[in-house]
Amino acid sequence: MATPTLSRVELDYSGGERLTMNMGPQHPSAHGVFRAILTLEGETVVGVDAVIGYLHRCHEKLSETLTYAQYPSIASKTDYVAAMTSEFAYVMAAEEIGKIEVPKRAQYLRIVTAELQRVASHLLWLGTWCMDMGGALGGGATIFLYCIRERELILDLFESLVGARLLYGFYQVGGVRYDIPSGWAQSCRQTIDLIEQRIGEYEGLLEQNPFFMARAHGVGVISRELAEDVGIAGPLLRGSNVNFDLRRAAPYSSYEDFKFAVPVEAAGDCFARYRVRMAEFRESIRIVRQVLDGLPEGAISSRPGLKSVAQVRIPKGEAYSRVEGPRGEVGCYLVADGSAKPYRMKWRGASFSNLAVLPHIIPGHKVADVVAIMGSVDPVFGEVDR
Amino acid sequence: MTRDQAATLIAEHFAGAQVQAGAALAVTVPVEQWQSFARFVKDTLGCHFFSFSSAVDWKEQGLEVIARVDNLDDGLGVLMKTRLGPGVSECPSLVPVYRGANWMERECYDMFGIRFDGHPDLRRILLGDDWQGHPLLKSYAVDTPYPPYR
Amino acid sequence: MPAWITPIIAPFIVLNVVIGIVTYVTLLERKFAARMQSRIGPYRVGPHGLLQPIADALKLMMKEDVVPTRADRRVFNLAPIVFLIPCMLIFATIPFAPGLGVADLNIGILFFLAVSSMEIVGLFMAGWGSNNKYALLSAMRAVNQIISYDLPFIFAALVPVMLAGSLKLSDIAAAQSGLWFVFYPVIGQLAFAAFVVSTLAAENRVPFDILEAESELVAGFRVEYSGMKFALIQLGEYAHIVGTSFLGALLFLGAWAGPGPAWLGPLWFLLKAMFLFLLVTWIRWSFVRIRVDQILALSWKVLLPATLALLVATSIVVVWRHGAGV
Fold it and tell me: How far is B136 from chain A, CA to nearest CA, in Å?
């Protein structure tokens, strides 16, 4: 498109019968609090105005008042579905400016939790997407319950590791806070074996279902050019034929030690993004197995003991660190000024950029497709609004 | 396109640009060249991926607008910066160059009060339409009361 | 017994039995769905949740009756009644055993099909009277979908009629004493399949439930209803499903035919109807829904030509088997 698309729709009541409908902040498939003001002609959406900010807590101002030791637990509240990711980005940025070493064991533990978090987050995505398409009282709810059951297994693992199921305080500047308890590696292996087998079943359940294929094929096509221009990342980008994964392109935290494939699909529709995420399940499980096999002994933090909860002063500098989260590139742009608190911290939220693509692709689709597209974009509003 | 090649090209075309030392490519350009620099980075350096754009409040020295773009094929990331000068809060918009700047610049306006010339739809995005003040400015204290919330 | 008592007592008994069955069918569906989703379903109210439907009914009766401010009050209030009546009326023509029915009309199946289509009026009244865009959108979809699927429904139901040679429902049931119509080579199975698919659509069951697509339209045409009016609409919906299950059992599965003495007939009939109902429920809890334009395409481009062709084939078979002049 030559001219930039307006996000506010120009309402023209002359001529065709246009109806303005609110898919309001309270909606079973708004994935959080999100308001889309749809302008409809019959069943076709001709304009969408996305209103966000219902969950805005101004994390960026908050971080200027909290020390580097205090903030990681708060960071998880941005992307609360994949909480490990945000903490990861924040502590990596602080470590980059302060040139703080992270021991190998801590790096491996970070990878294990990040990848398990990816599996858990994708399970939630699959369940809620199918529920959106199938109805809370319909076939979608069946898959939702199966996926939540699997996700509970991973959350149990996290609970025995960190003590919390959903929002952790696991990462800290210099390493991680807790070491894995005895027997954890064994139960982790059992869990991911079970999940791998069940993912195969769900794939079969969905892909042999012509209704699902009819809802997902050809819906919400994002062209490669639009994807890069708007800045969407993660499975959305890889579903639009761009082979870019931060774990491969700019490896962090020892990702280069492990073998895994990066799934890329060319079609750019909901089905392509679905295939990318299903493949990512398997790749994450592969990585977790490799990590557990090769976990080195050693310290879990370069600032152990009392230092781990003490203040850490990061010298003047700035850094932008990014992490490949389940939703895409989660980045933390940190400006440090030598004190124990950041001067400025900007969250590059994956879902914020992903959601920005909606006004470009929704017009032309039917109302039912809005739900399918939103599900495949998989926003988490903690990250959108921060 | 490596970092050094990019730095050379930038030095050739933009006299006023200052490239920071270090592994990451961070370039500061004067405000007048903001849009043309972005276009150059997109077309010549091949950075089609718009990552984010934001601002930093440097108190007496004024505001600084930053934007990060990436060249996904070559793995090159460019952090563009521009200082707006003390007391200034106008800046050219990047929306004609990158569509992703739309929401990002709305957030800058919302949080810092920076008006972007050429933005098609500059209004608050995260806060309510009737909010007064711009929270991320250093002059906005953390406990600034805003009715009816205090 | 005076002649005027039977027409009063019989409908009374049938209505009560039907409402009882419909209420407990909701529990059956919830338990069945729960088992499919590896959970248990209602368990606490009464032994194994058996009093759950009663608890639900009591709760709905006690809820506040909310009418939106600018809703069209008369239309809004009348809609559940207009929706419920056809759904109850269809049970009038179904014979539960030879000679045991309210009104075994000569044109039984015609009456059934005609009356069951009238629920659309109630549905549209509900959607319009609610003064709610979601409800209106749902009402528009309802008119589209139900009307489109009534045609294949009728044609699929006409196949047993032609095979039996009569519109009277007890005649159709009696004609299956040798072979149930579902086992009739090829046309029986095809007609049954078309019947099940059209039933799903005519009753707004997933995968055709865009009318009430919870994730898009948040309960569709009944979004503004609460309390007893909502209960009436639910009752009507489930009564319609049970009614078409009975019809399907009668048309295709041999109605009251089954091993054992003749007085077990109604029990077999009920079991077969429940089998059909569970089939529909099983499909409901396994599939996602498809979009409205895909639903309409399926109806007009696939089902309608298919059922028409099936009718033609059936007529050829009937003429060939029984000779011309039947």
Answer: 6
